[in-house]
Amino acid sequence: MVEILSAHEARRIALAAQGFGRPRPAQPGKRHLLSTIEALGVVQIDSVNVVSRSHYLPFFSRLGPYDRAVLEDLAWGRKPALAEYWAHEASLTPLATHPLLRWRMQDARDGAGVWKNVASFLRSHADFIDEALRAVDQRGPLAASDLELGAKGAGGWWGWSEGKRAMECLFWTGRLTTATRRGAFERVYDLPERVLPKAIHETPTPERGEACRGLLKIAARAMGVATERDLRDYFRLNLADAREGVAALAAEGALLPVNVKGWDQPAYLWPEARRPRAIKTAALLSPFDNLIWFRERAERLFDVRVRLEIYTPAHKRIHGYYVLPFLQNEQITARVDLKADRKTGRLLVLAAHAERHADTETPGALAAELALMARWLGLRAVEVRSVGDLAPAVGLAVGSHAEGGSTGL
């Protein structure tokens, strides 16, 4: 018989699978970061730096204040433990996941699906591409800007925009990979055999179906309980690959079919998923956090419509530009529009809105997490502006009694 889970049980399973509900370590270090990304399977990269670039935030949400330089070394140091590729979106993954994505690199070479324009560019600029590869081979790691000759957009080799396009196409096809990042988060490219460990680079390429099943297992473990659409979205698989893979995994018992009350689609349980009786946590979530990045799933789990308003015209935004939902125990109880004002050393709360599950403890719990984030970012104070129905209470909780007041940390 198919097991029936309540919505509360499913939410707790999902939260536990995502690393919430356990005490944060006193001093998060390398092993904590590695265990976190192993549990998540993938962390999305985003360059927006209004608060902090998104890939730093999921680790803070789960571990608390950690040294970001340690993550940078794991991702882009001399001996990386992580790989960068198009996994969910632009993402970091454990090194072992990299071979599971080679079919996607082949799709980019072939121009399959969404990669049509990549293959077209490679064909129409074949000499151009060969020059880029030769330059990296002979000169070592290069950014696209290192390939500029003459004025931007002038003749000769290429202008910056075409150079970047060439390097990105080579990255997507797996012929180049990210060696490091520099300056304003500029990608520096190198040959995979000079960046990836030999054991990873020489790993035999799995057959596409096997690779997709591997990715689906990572997704299922990371989500705990999920629908087929949830599983498909985690690594952005196409419908046919996901459907075939889920069916095969269910047939062999690697996924257990379940029904979740209130969900309008069948679901699958990871057999080893933890089933806590309660989740105690407080966390500010990146807009690109794994827990909420698939908006349909986020609404199903938390009964909250999470929207990304970065690309919404300012006058049409409801909650703000860079909005972080606040996870309080088992519910999303608030969302805050944040900005790190690095010149003045303040974490600005530009707006604070309550959600339907907010309670009397929400302002204090949120204020404590804001203070923790500010210290982690090297900021001296939290300043709460008077926008949003929760702003007055949060302002009081951080020690503010005047409009737009702040508290030192």
Describe the protein.
The protein contains 16 helices and 16 strands. Helix 6 (116-124) packs across helix 8, helix 7 crosses helix 8 and helix 12 crosses helix 13. Residues 153-160 and 400-405 have low confidence and may be disordered. By secondary structure, it is an alpha+beta fold. It has helices spanning 7-17, 30-40, 57-63, 68-76, 102-110, 116-124, 126-139, 160-172, 192-195, 198-201, 208-223, 228-234, 239-251, 295-302, 362-376, 391-397; strands at 3-5, 43-44, 82-86, 90-94, 142-143, 177-182, 186-190, 225-227, 256-260, 267-269, 282-284, 323-328, 331-341, 346-354, 381-384, 406-408. 38% of the residues lie in helices and 18% in strands.
Which SSEs are present, and which pair or pack?
Blueprint (H helix, E strand, L loop, with lengths): L2 E3 L1 H11 L12 H11 L2 E2 L12 H7 L4 H9 L5 E5 L3 E5 L7 H9 L5 H9 L1 H14 L2 E2 L16 H13 L4 E6 L3 E5 L1 H4 L2 H4 L6 H16 L1 E3 H7 L4 H13 L4 E5 L6 E3 L12 E3 L10 H8 L20 E6 L2 E11 L4 E9 L7 H15 L4 E4 L6 H7 L8 E3 L1
Parallel strand pairs: 1-9, 14-15
Antiparallel strand pairs: 2-4, 3-4, 5-7, 6-7, 8-10, 9-10, 11-12, 12-13, 13-14, 15-16
Helix pairs in contact: 6-8, 7-8, 11-12, 11-13, 12-13, 15-16
